[in-house]
Design brief:
Number of domains: 2
Number of strands: 0
Mean pLDDT: 84
Largest sheet: none
Strand content: under 5%
Radius of gyration: 19 Å
Keywords: DNA-binding
Order of helices and strands: HHHHHHHHH
Shape: elongated
Structural class: mainly alpha
GO molecular function: DNA binding
Protein name: Transcriptional regulator, TetR/AcrR family
Distance between the termini: 61 Å
Low-confidence stretches: 101-109
Length: 192
Amino acid sequence: MKNRINDELNKVKKDLYLKAAANYFDKSGYKNFKISHLAKELETSVGTIYNLFNSKDDLYLEYLIFKLQKFMETLKENETSDPKKNLELYLSCKYEIFIQIDNNPDETLTNDPYFFHKLDISNHQIVDEIYDYLIRQFKKLYPNSDINYKHISTLFKKLSDGFIESYLIEKYDTRNIVKDTIELFFHGLEKK
């Protein structure tokens, strides 16, 4: 019984620390994030944080999953019957999170060059949910088609990942990034 109570307490503590860390990651980004600064802000020891999250990378992966869960909640809450609008919503939300189109174009939340690799290998349920969302949109756009919806969804996601990665390498004007992504993707798809 005592172990179960301790496990539950650690789970609650981990969730609270993760939310605080998310705010800190949002402010400082990956490169500038220091466990010691987070510990000071949370008024706890570095050891306590490392007991809950084995490393900065583990904490960062938990942060990414947390952000993706929020992202998915937004998609679900705003999903319409128009699949193209839903794809635009997907891109808008994704680009806002990772490029911060409207907030501050000089500050990116994700400045980790291995971000997409870490995300793809996370094998977390939230990644599957995002793909399911995209697959649903393409099935509505191309019903009764012999298109491989998983393949098309992966290409769409990877194209938007590429826009973000390109932005991280060299900043560019992002005002039309959603429109540009949609046009480039569907132009290529129609050529096929």
